[in-house]
Amino acid sequence: MVRYIGMDVHREFAQLAVLEDGLVRDEGRIGVTPEALRAWADTLCPDDQVALEATGNSDAIATLLTPIVGRVVVSNPVKTRAIAEAKVKTDKVDARILAQLLAADFLPPVWLPDERTRSLRRQVHRRAHLVRQRTRIKNQVHAILARNLVPTPPVSDLFGKTGRHWLSQQVLPGDERSSVQALLRQLDFHGEELAIVDRELAVEAFADPVVARLMSIPGVDAIAAISIVAAVGDFTRFTSADKLVAYVGLNPKVRQSGNSAPVHGRISKAGRAHVRGVLVEAAWSASRAPGPLRAFYQRVRGRRGFPTAVVATARKMTVLAWHLVTKNQDYAFARPGLLTHKRRKLQLAAGAPSRRGNHGTPGAAYNSKQQRAEENAAVEQAERAYQVFVAHWQPRKPANHRAERPANIGGA
User: How far apart are CA 55 and CA 82, in angstroms?
Assistant: First the structure.
């Protein structure tokens, strides 16, 4: 008989429950360490199935158990409503419910990434943490200047060479100046760490054809492309672009009941928030570059405003990314000189030797004003074509799903 095992995983232990031959029993607790998990895995059979909720250590547990048992299901805790809404909620009850839902095949599973995708996710998360730390340090320096009535810096980059020279000339109390110097040392340290992570990500991105394809989209550089790849993983596991949009949380919420018309609300914000932020930043950059994406952004902004237009453009770029990757095509309206320039920057970030002054290097043609003007003219023509197309396009009104009123049999 197949055994269905539910694991309620915590930081130090996991509560076990086993459903076998229609009966559920408690199996006690085991430690969540590699040694304890391997010792417990030796007691399992190849036909056993194990279920656990997605937590911080669920990936490591699933990776250890997958070669040993027949099936490992990591469920989405947001969708496992039977546990969240239980009136009696204990570790034993949670483990029992997981085993029962697994036996009934009612658990909503999450996708388990491969080792490379896990590594990319960790690196991207580390980079995002370093960027947040640098921003926090810079804000603290600006706060020190503001509370000591220091005028607005006359330079755009306060933390560059010129900005730091100006900062050293300002009159500050002794303790405040010590704080500024300490913050600048922390900023330099985080900058060095960020450069190391960027180099590692550049090496990974340079050998990835999906990253090169995504970089053909306006507004998407190497870091944004590798962040998208780390969050999505295998694009082909999504059967449609709408499912990828829902995965990154850019799809609107829909509420509908009975014969009433569906009501569309704000975006769901499901999935990883970091990749959603990356897509929104890329959309903001694409909205300022000539091309059909800018025309789309301007059309939505005229009707719905700036925030909605940026999010709609990010959704459009997500759909575009799915089509490009699954169909092995580059973006049709990409500027060749700009794309070559971005790929050359990626090569340099990955450690390729710099050849300054050599006009035959890849990406050097982007420095030609004439070539940039010709490429801009081509994509601006595509932008005007999109504007003409949508000007004559009229969306269909939603169908009226209201039920017809019954006839008055009694008259009157």
Answer: 17
Residue 3 · residue 92 · CB < 8 Å: no
How many other C-beta atoms are found inside a 10 Å radius of the C-beta of residue 15? 22
pLDDT of 28 above 60 = yes
Give me the DSSP letters along 311-322. HHHHHHHHHHHH
- Tell me the whole-structure pTM to 2 decimals: 0.86
Residue 352: pLDDT above 90?
no
Q: Which of 207, 206, 214, 221 is nearest to 328 (CA)?
A: 214
Please compute the mean of the pLDDT values over residues 341-363 and round it to a whole number.
Answer: 78
If you average pLDDT over every residue of the chain, what do you get? 89
Transcribe 171-192 into DSSP letters: ---HHHHHHHHHHHHHHHHHHH
Q: Which residue has the higher pLDDT, 402 or 270?
A: 270
Query: Are 16 and 26 in contact, with CB atoms under 8 Å apart?
Result: yes
Q: Nearest CA to 123 among 4, 233, 271, 227?
A: 227
- Decide which of 411 and 177 is more confident: 177
Are residues 325 and 337 in contact, defined by beta-carbon separation less than 8 angstroms?
Answer: no
Segment holding 72, helix H or strand E: strand 71-75
DSSP 237-266: G-SSHHHHHHHTT-SEEEE--TTSPPEEEE
Among 161, 302, 137, 287, which residue's Cα sits nearest to residue 218?
A: 287
Cα-Cα-Cα-Cα dihedral sign, residues 302, 305, 307, 311:
negative
What is the full DSSP assignment across 101-139?
HHHTT---B-----HHHHHHHHHHHHHHHHHHHHHHHHH
Residues 6 or more apart in contact with residue 342 via CB below 8 angstroms: 215, 221, 222
Determine the average pLDDT of the residues in 115-139: 95
**Do the beta carbons of residue 282 and residue 224 sit within 8 Å?**
yes
Q: Is the dihedral of CA 83, 258, 244, 124 positive or negative?
A: negative
